Amino acid sequence: MNRLYRLLACMGIALLLIGGTASASPTLREGSHGHDVLVLQRALQNAGYQIKSIDGNFGKETERAVAAFQRDNKIKITGVVNNATWRALRNAPAKRPWGIDVPRPAPKKIPLAPNGTPILPANKVQDLIKTAKTYMGTPYVFGGASPKGFDCSGYLQYVFQKQGITIPRTADEQYKLGLRTKSTKELVPGDLVFFETYEKGASHCGIYLGKGEFIHASTSKGVRIDELSNDYWQPRFLGGKHIVK
Catalytic: which of 35, 204, 205, 242? Predict the structure, then answer.
């Protein structure tokens, strides 16, 4: 990935300024569980800290990894994930399992697709969807933006790049693309769908396939197809963006 990005909010009290908007970061500690903890564990693992059980449960192992990360980043060592810890995780360099830094390529200066307007030609929709499905089963990697592993927005950026369209790297920036749809009935295949999961605002995204289905890089099972009516996704649906022209 080029950069780790907007991270996880809903539960915390402290405000974190990210990308020009204020959002609350979740405070996690031993005993916490759920999606936020799962993403935390993957972020720590990606940063080179030993986490054997990526299970969404904040136990002693996760607490030790958090404390080690805080120590290494000169954050007050509490074992509790607070605003400062999330901020440091956003900028933590990706490492291999044995702790060697992975060189980050210099970002390419390619013009981004414009915001607030359709960007995907109708004649490219099927090719886009075909490309997206090519990577079914690719594992989720926190900060991943290649076929070795994707996170949600890295996956979208990669798939669109294959069609010669450069979109932003993060879900919140991708949410600025296209035109807001009033309901799911207005979505067409190729449009984008966004969810408010671990953070207020757009924090998860996917590509709409039609018939109520979308394809995305899920935290737990990698690239897969889910239904918007799913018990998990439906209450977290933030909105669709019409990008097909």
Answer: 204
